[in-house]
Design brief:
Strand content: under 5%
Number of domains: 1
Radius of gyration: 18 Å
Largest sheet: 2 strands, antiparallel
Number of helices: 3
Length: 122
Amino acid sequence: MNASTRFLSALLVTAVVWVVPAFAAAASDAKARMRERVPVIDRFKVSAAVGENNQGFLEVRGGGAGDAAAVVSSENTDRQAVFADTASRTCSSAQVVGRAFAQQMAAASASGVWIQRENGQG
């Protein structure tokens, strides 16, 4: 094994040891924040200020109410991190994970909550 191969091997090991757990920790932190936001998001959904799109992200609806836009932005950032982490662990893509999440959210949503259909219709 030459010096450049040893260096690349060491770099890969370092990435696996330090970077991968960091992504997992970030996703874990994101999930915790998401759980904390559920009651607020549910209130926004019931008031029609927020809805779920077919990509797994929240959307502000009808101008939103109060701090809906800030909550949606924070939630979507965390969802993106969780989707990316899940995709890396399942050899998938964040888009596929997001769409699957959207389907789960649609199935679990209360009546009257805005849900974007698969075909993009609201």
